[in-house]
Amino acid sequence: QVQLVESGGGLVQPGGSLRLSCAASGRTFSNYPMGWFRQTPGKERDFVAAINRNGGSPYYADSVKGRFTISRDNAKNTVSLQMNSLKPEDTAVYYCAQSRLYGSRRWTDFGSWGQGTQVIVSS
Known about the structure:
By secondary structure, this protein is mainly β. Helix content is 0%, strand content 46%. The chain has strands at 3-7, 10-12, 18-25, 34-39, 46-51, 59-60, 68-73, 78-83, 92-99, 110-111, 117-121.
């Protein structure tokens, strides 16, 4: 089973950018699609973006489309989320996860969750 560790969160002003990274351990990383979710207190985890196992065919939540870009490097066992034009409503804990079903946006179809990294967008 893969273990995931997110990093790169922090405090950023509206309109700014952050790049989140997720490092995976284990030999099976490249066998699975990967995704990013986010969660605010008292709410379920919301889908943000996902990418297939080869690094292609990304898909995004409508709320981040055109602003966020997901990518992966199978040689380095990493998946990243470049976040541009950040808005206060992007404030959340961001999680990466391994997908069991490419194309799904349901958190129940993802597993091996990392511990999360906090993103705060505020002036």
